[in-house]
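Human:
Take a look at this sequence-structure pair and walk me through the tokens.
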Amino acid sequence: MANKNRFECIGRLARDPEFGVTKSKMAYCRLSIATTRKYKSSGDKKEETFFINATAWGQKAEFINEYTSKGHLVYVEGPLTNNRWEDKEGNKRSDIVLMIDDIQLLEKKFKEPAEKTE
């Protein structure tokens, strides 16, 4: 059987998106998506919440930054990647990140406009 790296989930943004631009002027946006799994164990209803780290690039990042905020219900899809780095103490660290290929807003909730300072 062929390998397939595709992940999809529906969840709420656990915090406001973190938007930035690289030195090469590529927009990116980091998200944390909370998704809940409901199940039964020994006849009792249980639920478990997972937090998925995700990153979007380019126009998707700009869209996410402009139209979403903490609590927004979204559908996301894309491949998983392993992010590796070394911390300040020299310890090797890693985490799994969803690279967003597709995002859909699942409710009509609008981001509050930024306050104007004059």
Remarks:
- The two ends are 61 Å apart (CA to CA).
- The beta strands are 7-13, 18-21, 27-41, 44-57, 73-78, 80-86, 92-99, 102-105.
- The chain has one domain: 7-105.
